[in-house]
Amino acid sequence: MKIAVLPGDGIGKEVVPIAVDVLRTMLPEAEYVYVDVGHERFTREGKAMTNEDIETIKKCDCILFGAITSPPKKCYRSVILTLRQALDMYANVRPFKSCSISPYKVDFTIYRENCEDLYCGMEDVSDDQVLSTRKITRHASERIARKACGHPGLEMLTIVHKANVLRSCELFRDVCIDIAKKAGVPYEEMLVDAMAYNLIRNPSRFDVIVTTNLFGDILSDEAAALIGGLGLSPSANIGDRYALFEPVHGSAPDIAGKGIANPIAAVLSAKMLLEWSGHRAKAEFVQGAVDRTISNGILTPDMGGKFKTEDVGLSIVKHLESQ
């Protein structure tokens, strides 16, 4: 297996090495191909990522990604958005599961359409107004609905939209309902504002959630608060050929270089990589090592601890090696 490693910017360079240590422990035969992308490279060279970089990445089986700073510059194109579209990774999958210190008891997964909506970059810009086009197609809606309906152990699919106001959401909702019916999957539908309310009011009721790109982006950050923060939240970007695994958090320039970033989200992203590549037993070993590290109180400051990034990583790897 060949894994492209893109640490990116800020704390990505601190947490990705720990995730790689975990993968090396679980997959000693794998090959790791490092690619320098991101805003720090853009500042040095005027390019965040080149076409040659994308071709290098395409020669790998999957990608482990850190974090990217995306400044609001007209000449700067988001690396992660570019990769999602270039590799057609249409499903953003974000699991949320309680740990021993989580404020709520939850276990659900958000499936977010990953290539359309307002993130397509179709904007008409003038001095006095900006018109942003929201693109929702039947094709993309069908793909994400099928992916969500195929979630292992699915008991209830919640389709999130704003069809009472937006015709684009009406299309998304109708397509998802049609796919769920054909798959024989129990489903419910919910307006996005009601969903935001119920995620706080009664989060344990949810199982699998499918929604559009923008709504999924917002709801998944809200959901991260239910399990203890972004430092515990992994994600996957999955297509028919390629997959990219990344922590949900950003580059966090305010704490970069201080050695206090939480590596658990990156490690759990590596766990998702193991699941995707068919190593489910090894993925469970990683989850167990993370759980024991948390139970033993080896925590970074964002989780109320006093330990460094490296300490948490060493604890996880130690538990893996003792399996």
TrEMBL record:
GO terms for biological process: isocitrate metabolic process; L-leucine biosynthetic process; tricarboxylic acid cycle. Gene3D superfamilies: Isopropylmalate Dehydrogenase (3.40.718.10). Residues 2-316 form the Isopropylmalate dehydrogenase-like domain. PROSITE patterns: IDH_IMDH (PS00470). One of its GO terms (molecular function) is magnesium ion binding. InterPro entries: IsoCit/isopropylmalate_DH_CS (IPR019818), IsoPropMal-DH-like_dom (IPR024084), LEU3_arc (IPR011828). Keywords: Magnesium, Metal-binding, NAD, Oxidoreductase. Its cofactor is Mg(2+). The keyword Metal-binding applies. PANTHER family: DECARBOXYLATING DEHYDROGENASES-ISOCITRATE, ISOPROPYLMALATE, TARTRATE, ISOCITRATE DEHYDROGENASE [NAD] SUBUNIT ALPHA, MITOCHONDRIAL. Belongs to the isocitrate and isopropylmalate dehydrogenases family. This is Threo-isocitrate dehydrogenase [NAD]. The gene is aksF.
